[in-house]
Amino acid sequence: MLDLPPPVPKLDAQQLLEDVNRITGAGLQFVGQPAGGEVGAAFVRWPDGRDAVLTRGAGGLSELRRTAEALEAARGQGLPVPQYQLLAEVPDGVGVVQERLPGRAPEQVDRKLLEAMIELAELFAGIAPDLPVPSLHLLESGPGFCLHESLERYDNRTRKLLAWIHEVGRSAPGEMTGDDLVHPDFHTGNVLVDDTGAIAGIIDWDGIGRGDRHFGLVTLRFDAHVRTTDLAWFDELLHDLLDPAVLRLYWAHMALRMVDWSIRHHTAADVTHWLEFAAAIP
């Protein structure tokens, strides 16, 4: 039996809602839970009828206040991002109540949607000078994700990948640079679209940071790999936008993230799938 790190626990939405209401007196009502998602969120409603989304935030209260301020600045630039309406310290973290944006998850992922997301990411340019640069965790485990121990303990294939990740982490550049807004999980599951298919919202801003907006395109490329085919144009775009060493840096992070997550949450077939894709850096 492998001694692997445990999976990330699913959100107990009812308990979190009870804690937030008890501590703040917000009077939020449970509405339901969205389909999909790896860890969880809950739809809730304010006493005045406004719909909202409840999650457990990543980080402490000061970090989440900084996230709220950055999202307000992004809203001021016309980006369709949610407003943080309430932050509440609860026994096991911070409850975040945020605006429920209009729209729905896209039913179809195609080149049109991917190109719209790539175009929208250009609006992230230069609007995050005061945020910290997020770690890519190539030389140490992340907080609940990007765990090196999973790859070290799983098998020889994952240990080989981990050795390459360490090599990339010790090479230049070792981290992101720039003053762009960075969405750390910029994929098709984190956008909402309207009835015409146009993007109406970008959600799940945990871990927001400052750096290179093009990092999100590498995240999107990993996601697109399992959503659609004929992505040669996307690979050409990445080569046009990113220096090979920078592409390698971001690719190493995503390989670590996806293989670790698959080891702890999914199947052996998923692990093999992501190992093979990680080796196919364009």
From TrEMBL:
Keywords: Kinase, Transferase. Pfam families: APH. One of its GO terms (molecular function) is kinase activity. Gene3D superfamilies: 3.90.1200.10. The keyword Kinase applies. It comes from the Bacteria. The keyword Protein biosynthesis does not apply. Residues 43-249 form the Aminoglycoside phosphotransferase domain. PANTHER family: AMINOGLYCOSIDE PHOSPHOTRANSFERASE-RELATED-RELATED (PTHR21310). This is Thiamine kinase-like enzyme. It comes from Kribbella jejuensis.
